[in-house]
């Protein structure tokens, strides 16, 4: 595992003008997805009831963003919309998100992945409303947190799902499906999904006060740079300070083969002992000039065991961002976030 106590980010901060501090937002932003288009940064995250795109002043400043709710489901259609992502596919903006198609199961057993179609990608992603397209096919069980990327000139989705036949809500694994277009040209047709990762290390698990063991891999985000290809994912419990990020590296030749993916044994990114805490569910973007990779992730300013009444660890999850460096082998270097309020250098 590449774990440096943020030596490279700190060195970068010294080399640059001190310009920003975390968090980069003022209100709750769980599951942040930030992306760069035409010199502008856009942010979306879990609101629960819609898909809203926020136009940020910069990568490091989304304190007073303009916003547009690009999709609000009709009455009695979709509920509990989670972790939307916006992607440019086939010359159009598409939103991928998880939702339930009915509201009578409080334990979310009906979450699946869905697709919305937006404006042409020659226009800003928030320039128009998005229309419902379809549920992603090829996924037979519960599924959330789908992320889309191109590898070997083919479009894939990696998502977090329950193992087939397991409805305990305790186990989440990572699966991959190859996406192709439906009759309308939208990337909604998935191949038969393949499991590529399951929790196998202690840091990926959480035991609650009732003794139930939660084994979780979720929140995947694809990273590609300097010959490295892999998925950053979150483990442990999103409502506890143990929430951390791991690496599932692509080391083979066929993304649809589980043997092509190698999980690093140690957590790659974790809580700062002095805060922030519960770092997870990241997205990757670049500096304006494209030379640096920046991770955007949520975290809390308060530490939680995960066994507090009312799961307060889900409250106060605010987006932070930090530059990511690489070692001499081209692997991303992890660590923990610089403390909130400490000045960091601007993106290149």
Automatic annotation (TrEMBL):
The entry lists its GO molecular-function terms as: hydrolase activity, hydrolyzing O-glycosyl compounds
One Pfam annotation, family name?
Glyco_hydro_43
Q: Does the keyword Signal apply?
A: yes
A GO biological process of this protein is: carbohydrate metabolic process
Instruction: From the UniProt annotation, give the residues forming the signal peptide.
Output: 1-19
* InterPro entries reported for this sequence: Glyco_hydro_43, Glyco_hydro_beta-prop_sf
User: Which UniProt key words apply to this protein?
Assistant: Glycosidase, Hydrolase, Signal
Name the source's superkingdom: Eukaryota
Entry's PANTHER family? Answer: GLYCOSYL HYDROLASE, HYDROLASE, FAMILY 43, PUTATIVE (AFU_ORTHOLOGUE AFUA_3G01660)-RELATED
What does the sequence similarity comment in the record state about its family? Belongs to the glycosyl hydrolase 43 family.
Protein name as it appears in the record: Arabinanase/levansucrase/invertase
Q: Which organism is it from?
A: Heliocybe sulcata
